[in-house]
Amino acid sequence: MPQKIAAGNWKMNGTRSSLSEIQAIAEAAQDIDCTAILCPPAPLIHSAAGLAGPLAIGGQNCHHAKSGAFTGDISAEQLVDCGASYVILGHSERREGYGESDTLVRDKAQEALRSGLTPIICLGESRDQRTAGQALDIVLAQLSVSVPDDAQIIIAYEPVWAIGTGLVPSVAEITEMHDALRAQLHAIYGASGQDISILYGGSVKPSNAQEIFAIPNVNGALVGGASLKAEDFLPIMRSLAES
Ligand code: PEP
């Protein structure tokens, strides 16, 4: 059975004064029956991990090499050393802004796994690709190259046009994509493909979470803006637990 997972991506938001939100989420998380993960900016990871209790902490990126002359980068081992147990990889903001390819995402995922992190691998089509009827082909092609050999991963389907826009695909569109992802995970990993959590991401809010979590093969959410405040993230976690 896939785990129910609510993961929050803080992106480049938050300073040490925001740790109180992480503490509030961690305190409430012990009474909510889902796996909760927060991925704050790297400088906050160590402090966040010290507060987190049942809340797991993740990074937002890592390098594909174990160590070396890579100024400004962070290794998977360093994330583990600071208390992280997950890492978001291949987010569209990194694919678009830093030219990250599917093969690079796979190499990062292999290194994350070697270091003991569970990768959260993001996939998603652009608005133009969706309009052109290419969404399924694009996302399944991303999946086939971006994933590592080991099935110890989480997949996040995040249509690029839904991130931070308030736009959300229809229930039929999410259903079609998540069913296709599940089928391809079976094709890649065999029976283990059934246990991989497939998250939906893109403008998830307390107001739409229940409807999204009722969709088969949606095993949780990757949440950006609505993960910054406990008052928004906790209702999403509760909807997931009740789904
Ligand atoms: C994200 O960036 O992963 C995301 C889903 O953002 P938002 O929830 O703000 O759309």
How is this structure best described in words?
The protein has a single domain, classed as Aldolase class I (TIM Barrel, Alpha-Beta Barrel). It has an eight-stranded parallel beta barrel with strand order 1-2-3-4-5-6-7-8, surrounded by six helices. The chain is 42% helix and 15% strand. Helix 7 (135-146) runs parallel beside helix 8 (171-189) and helix 9 runs parallel beside helix 10 (230-242). It has 243 residues and is α/β, with parallel strands linked by helices. Phosphoenolpyruvate is lined by residues 9, 158, 163-164, 201-204, 222-226.
What's the quick description here?
This protein is α/β, with parallel strands linked by helices. Helix content is 42%, strand content 15%.
Key descriptive features of the protein:
globular; TIM Barrel; binds phosphoenolpyruvate; alpha/beta; 8-stranded parallel β-barrel; 243 residues; 10 helices
Looking at CATH, which topology would you report?
Answer: TIM Barrel
Question: What is the CATH superfamily classification?
Answer: Aldolase class I
| Count of domain modules | 1
By DSSP, the count of extended strands is: 8
